[in-house]
Amino acid sequence: MNTTALAAAALFDLDGTLLDTAPDLTAALNVLLAEERRAALSLATVRPHVSTGAIAVVHTGFPEFEVGSAGFEALRLRFLDHYSAAVAVHTRLFPGFEQVLATLEAHALPWGIITNKAGWLTEPLLDALGLRTRAACVVSGDTLKVRKPHPDPLLLAAERIGVPAADCVYVGDALRDVQAARAAGMVPLGARYGYLNEAEQPESWPVAGWLDKPQDLLPWLRLRRSNAINGDVS
Question: Minimal CB count within 10 Å: which of 37, 41, 59, 165?
């Protein structure tokens, strides 16, 4: 149950929180694997590594390569080429998130995105899904010199939307999301529906609460009427 003051804005991680990007990332990895004459990997195998970024995804397909080596870097760049060419083929909002965003917008509560994904991938993806113009702010992994778990990207987002950090919730599906939110003074919420990697022991993360589905966010927000929690925003 939410025992904190209700938030005036919602900020989201991208991969595994707002968007289900794993199918397109898996497809890009499988193109690379086919080029290297290796067997394709299943979505279930790749999915837990997506929130950690391209390095983790590529390493899932090529575990014998040392991360940072010349050979691995060449694979990573080819993977990103394949992904950028088909960044929004299967990617969609997680089920229920359209209702959540519509509710936020109906109540004039700003929402934004803070991701470690580079802007040259983030912006075309959001454009393809019609989300970039709806978001009050988008902070990508290369917007600043630091990325999550550093709090500065979250603090920049709060500044851009004009809401104090303490009045924001930040939703993510990785430990670095929780750490960044805590360091920024925001309310950290965990997306249990996302790409949680059980090896990271998410049950030990210092979250204020867990969301089993996107709609579970609504009770944490300053909605004008309680019936909006059930989707009635008329």
Answer: 37
Active site residues: 13
Domain at 9-20+92-230, CATH from 3.40.50.1000, 3.90.1300.10, 3.40.50.720, 3.40.470.10: 3.40.50.1000
Say if CB 115 and CB 155 are below 8 A apart. no
What does DSSP assign to residue 150? S
Q: Are 233 and 106 in contact (CB under 8 A)?
A: yes
User: pTM for this one?
Assistant: 0.93
As a residue count, the chain comes to 234
pLDDT (tens digit per residue) in 9-36: 999 999 999 999 999 999 999 999 999 9
Give dist(CA 183, CA 33) in Å, integer: 39
Residue 191, strand partner residues? 211
Residue 225 has pLDDT above 90, yes or no: no
